[in-house]
Amino acid sequence: MLQLRPVEVGDIPRLTRLLHAAYAELGAAGLNFTAVDQSYEVTARRINSGSTWVAEAGGRLAATVTLAIPPSSPLRALSLTAAAPRTAWLNQLAVHPDHRGAGWGRALFERCVREARARGAERLGLDTAEPAEHLRAMCNRWGFEGRESIHWEGKTYDSRVMSLDLAGASVGTTAEVNSA
Q1: Per the omega criterion (within 30 degrees of 0), is the bond before 70 cis?
Q2: Confidence (pTM)
Q3: Strand, helix or coil at 30?
Q4: Residue 79: pLDDT band by 50, 70, 90 thresholds?
Q5: Containing H/E element for 111?
Q6: Rg (alpha carbons) of the chain, rounded to whole number
C-alpha cells in the first residue's frame, strides 16, 4: 500500500536520488530540468518553498510533489498565470520509473488539489517543458489547460504554463492511498 506523508529533512538524500531517477529520461532527451542533477542543497531549498509530500511504499520513496502558495517570486515575474491572485503551483512532481502507471502521480496531484482548495486557492498551475509532450498530455487528462509559454534562464527549452480551475476540478479519492 502507498503511504502519502509530508517530507522530512532526513528524506533529502533519498528524495534527491528519486528526483534524479524520475527526470533522467528527460535529461537524456536534452531537457535540463533542475531535478535532473540537483544537489541535496537545492532539494532542501525547493522542498522548503512550499508543502512537500512523498509517496512511500515498503520504506522506499516512490514519488513526490511540492505545492507552493503563492508561486515563487521568479515564476510570478515570468508568468501572468502564476502572478494571478489565489494561485497555487505544482513543483517537482516526480514518480520513480519503477512505479509509473500505478496512479501515484495522480494521488499526489489530488492531494495538492485538496490542499490548495483548503488554503483558498482558486487555480492550480504548473509549468513543464514544451517538448515533453507526454507530460503535457498527462496534465491535459487531469484537466489542466495551456496558458502561455515562458523561458527560464539557463534552460534548453521553453516551458508551457498550464492551469486548472479548482472550482471545476474533479478529484477522486484513491482508495489504496493512506494520507498522513
Answers
A1: yes
A2: 0.91
A3: coil
A4: very high
A5: helix 104-118
A6: 15
